[in-house]
Amino acid sequence: MRTFRSVFSHLSIIFSGMFITLTILNQYNPGMGFLTSTISMVFIFLFCLSVVALAVATIMDNRRYAKHMHQRAEEAARWKKISTNNQRPPQR
Amino acid sequence: MHHKKPLPGLLVVLLDLLGVGAALGIFALFLFVIPSGSDGPMKNIVLFGATPTIAVSATPEPAVQTDNASLATPAPTATPSPSPTPAPGDFSATFPTGEFDDEASIGSYADENLRVSITEHRTDSAVYFVADVWVRNIQGFKTAFAGDKYNGGYELPSDTASKNNAILSLSGDCYRARQEGIVIRNGVLYRDTRSGDVCILYADGTMESYYESEFDIDTAVARGAFQGWSFGPKLIDNGQIPASYNTSDAIMSHNPRAAIGYFAPGHYCLVYVDGRQPDYSKGLTMEELSQAMIDLGCVDAYNLDGGQSSMMTFQGQVIGQPYKGGREISDIIYFGGNDPVA
């Protein structure tokens, strides 16, 4: 999952950089169709796919981490309870 | 569990930048080098016999069509319908004869079918050249593709003009730089998708420019569109400077320009503006170009590909000083010389 996230993070950066460049170029010459051509649409679609994949991977990772933390908290609470029960009474 | 040592942060940034460059390279490859559109004509609009006729339906099927093209093009009917009023395209009645009377002319040419007179104009910020053109027949108004065929590549406009032995030429709309936009050349429809304002020269000699939203390809084809360009913007709106232009602010500022103007059937002008050379000519803004076309007496006018792309040649010589010597583009407008091959 970490590799998957890493790959799609870099892909998202690459597509973002590309579209920032194309947006600037489009300001100077919109007639060239930098943002409206068929190939632009293909790249926008790929950008969307990579962002969705990254988002899904991030959400799954976050959920798994939250679940893991919850389990750890429960386990810690259980151990705390056990250790409290096993605690010898204080010496007088 | 063994963890690999991560790459240095700077290297990761550099690799991402390299990725951006590679993606832009692939984008440019598909946008400019390998256009996905058709390589063949979609439809013959005007056929020339003794008199030009409009061939709306009696046309061959296109060799290859894009999805957009097949959606936007009306299916040919089984039986050819009678053409609308035959477009005469013969301007012998108005074609001038005799000596040139323009003393300001810096170059002129006349034969039995073509008359050209070039004048130089200067404003505070720009130097521009106007070629006043008369043709006896609409077939004298020609266009050519770089590489002698549609999607045939890019050439310096002067090279394309030389190949066609053009008397006068002007850089066109560089249709190949975009995958959309009307392309009609010498009576043949090559691309029928809209992109920006459109200019159509009809077989009867009239020329009209249209805002993108008001243009209809089927109507233009039925009227006998002979040449069609997509770049723009439209420069004259009902005899006035347009209230707004269908283009970006960057294009509106001082720039080298190429434009075409229309006076009457058979009588046109090509305008070339030098620019981006502060000590010589900054170029014209779009409003200044509109005003210049109105001052010339044009009824309609249309902006073609400008900047470094713009170039005019006359009898084999480049007119003015194109910015950085010009650049390779995909098409020209020309007069005289060979008949179009594509």
Structure description:
The complex is a heterodimer of chains A (92) and B (342). Chain A is mainly alpha-helical and 92 residues long. Chain A has one domain. Chain A is built from two helices and no strands. Chain A has helices at residues 2-28, 38-85. The longest helix of chain A is centred in the C-terminal third of the chain and has 48 residues, at 38-85. Chain A is rod-shaped, with a radius of gyration of 25 Å. The model of chain A has no long low-confidence stretch (mean pLDDT 88). Chain B has six helices and 19 strands. Chain B is globular and about 90 Å long. Chain B is of the alpha+beta class and 342 residues long. Chain B has one domain (89-335). The termini of chain B are far apart. Chain B has helices at residues 9-33, 67-72, 157-163, 217-223, 249-252, 286-296, and strands at residues 43-44, 46-48, 52-54, 105-110, 114-122, 127-135, 141-145, 168-171, 183-185, 188-191, 198-202, 207-210, 225-230, 257-264, 267-273, 300-303, 312-314, 317-318, 331-335. Classes of the chains: A mainly alpha (92), B alpha+beta (342). Chain A binds chain B through residues 10-11, 13-15, 17-18, 21-22, 26-34, 36-40, 43, and chain B through 15-17, 19-20, 22-24, 27, 30-31, 36, 177-180, 195-196, 231-232, 247-251, 305.
**Amino- and carboxy-terminal Cα gap of chain A:** 56 Å
Number of strands of chain A: 0
**Beta-strand percentage range of chain A:** under 5%
Assembly state: heterodimer
Which stretches of chain B are low in confidence, meaning pLDDT under 50 for 5 or more residues running? 57-80
Beta-strand percent range of chain B: 25-35%
Q: Return the domain count of chain A.
A: 1
The H-and-E topology of chain B, N to C, reads as: HEEEHEEEEHEEEEEHEHEEHEEEE
Order of helices and strands of chain A: HH
> How many independent structural domains of chain B?
1
> The biggest beta sheet of chain A, please?
none
